[in-house]
Amino acid sequence: MTTPRPSNTTPHQLPTLESHEALMQLAARRELELIAARRMSEVFSQHIKLQDLLEQALHIALDVVNAENGSVLLADTDNRTLVFYHSIGQQPVLPGTEVPWYEGIAGTVYRTGVPEIVPDAQTDIRHFKQVDATTGAITHDMITLPLKRWEGDPIGVIQVMNKRGGEFLDRDDMAILTIIASLAAVAIEHTRLVEAAKLAEVAGLMGDITHDIKNLLMPIVCGAGILQTEINELLDSLPDSEIKRATASRKICNEVVEMLKDDAHRIHDRVAEIADAVKELSTPLDFSACEVADVVSNVFRSLGILAQERHVRLLTENLELLPLIVADQRRLYSAFYNLINNAIPEVPAGGSITVYGQPATTESAIVVSVIDTGGGMTPDVRDRLFTKRAVSTKPGGTGLGTKIAKDIVEAHGGTIRVESELGAGTKIHIRLPLKPGEAGRS
Known about the structure:
The protein is an alpha+beta fold and 442 residues long.
């Protein structure tokens, strides 16, 4: 006799309406995951810059989960901050904006490596409301995911906010975004490795170029010395009736020859400094007593013709009142040269650049300001000014001039900062200790 099967174990039982909807939702999510993976794979296969890669990854993230706003923040390990590299939305965060990585929801996810869904950011005490205040946006629901290297070390976070259609970001969205974040992190590391390889190649070439330029400049320096000797011998042989005129000519010729030799050395120094900036290296400083007024005077002599051509006045104020400092005069010259050379093209005809010595507020340091009457800077340009992300506005410019100046000032134990607004000119303030090691004293 056969025992009938219980009805609830029938193998061909039809699915319920609820299970059918669940299967459809699962299928829809899987389809979105495949779309996200395919689109990220396409991005990964492209040879694009890091900024473009981040932009595309963020667009994909917002598209697949139907969200309004999003940002990619990468870690700056030197400053222990998370930096907004790209932001999308009606009121995006300015690139270069930094937040401490020990604060906010982004900081929590970066440090723990655990993604988080926040249903209402406004009620979360960790929410970094200063960003909302700056942009004028209001963050509601949010998903934050870590960006990790393949070894597992964090490199930043990706945030997606405010799902459209009256819905809220949920775990299904986080599953899709996890795929995007994982592939984005791999792509970011790949791009960085490619850029690092190119940088290493450039650094090697810069070393070769520095050597070649030194060899090319050597005949100029030697020739200038020979020319100076020939001129002096020729003038010495003139009759007494021509001595007065010859004295003036000798002075002019000697000044021109000395300028030629000095500038030849400075061309070599400039190339070497660019190479150091590219390689993140710095040659040791050669300290001696010097006057800032003399250093600035030499800079003005080198850039005087360029300033005259653009009808820009180069001025000094109170520099003669500054005390002697112990510094590397050659490197200090380079710092002021870079700052003034960068300012000249930004100042309209009839404007000025003033190097101003501020009255000493302490006995251990001086403050020198480079003040121009140019058009000023936008906040994003200003905030990147002394970093590797600085962008030159001059045709053919490297953007490294301000970073080189910052490196030189900091190597002296000093600090440099900028004040600038569009239409209000630019002020760059340099604080230098009177002697090495006195930077921290008050």
